[in-house]
Amino acid sequence: MASNPRNGRPYRRLTAQQRSLGLPCWLCGHNIRYDITGPEAGKHPLGFTLDHLVPLSMGGALCDPANARSAHRRCNSSRGNRATTAKRPRPSRRW
Predict the structure, then answer these.
(1) SS (H, E, C) 11-38
(2) Among 53, 63, 71, 89, which residue's CB has the most CB atoms within a 10 Å radius?
(3) What does pTM read for this prediction?
(4) Number of C-alpha atoms within 13 angstroms, CB side, residue 90?
(5) What is 8-79's CATH topology?
């Protein structure tokens, strides 16, 4: 039985590098709660999670920094494995 590649040192290093950038969520544009750490971060909807631009299920690279994005847990979960880009802002009114 193979081990989970997300527990490996390269993945943890990439996650730490992405977290250190302190970027907003690439999906919704709002700030991420980087102050939440430990086991709580994985459960809090506004906590940091590493998202992949090209989902792993569609051939995206696991440890490629060019494929890594900072996202809220809830935004990453709601996106699932869809290969979508960040949400476009909605127009202020209907024309």
Answers:
(1) HHHHHHHHHHHCCCCCCCCCCCECCCCH
(2) 71
(3) 0.78
(4) 4
(5) DNA Binding (I), subunit A (1.10.30)
Q: Which two tokens stand for residue 74?
A: 């809830």
pLDDT tens profile 17-68:
999 999 999 999 999 999 988 888 778 999 999 999 999 888 889 999 999 9
Region class of 59: left (phi > 0), else alpha (psi between -120 and 50), else beta: left
Return the domain boundaries, the chain.
8-79
Q: Check residue 42 and give its pLDDT.
A: 75
Closest CA to 20 of 43, 62, 50: 50
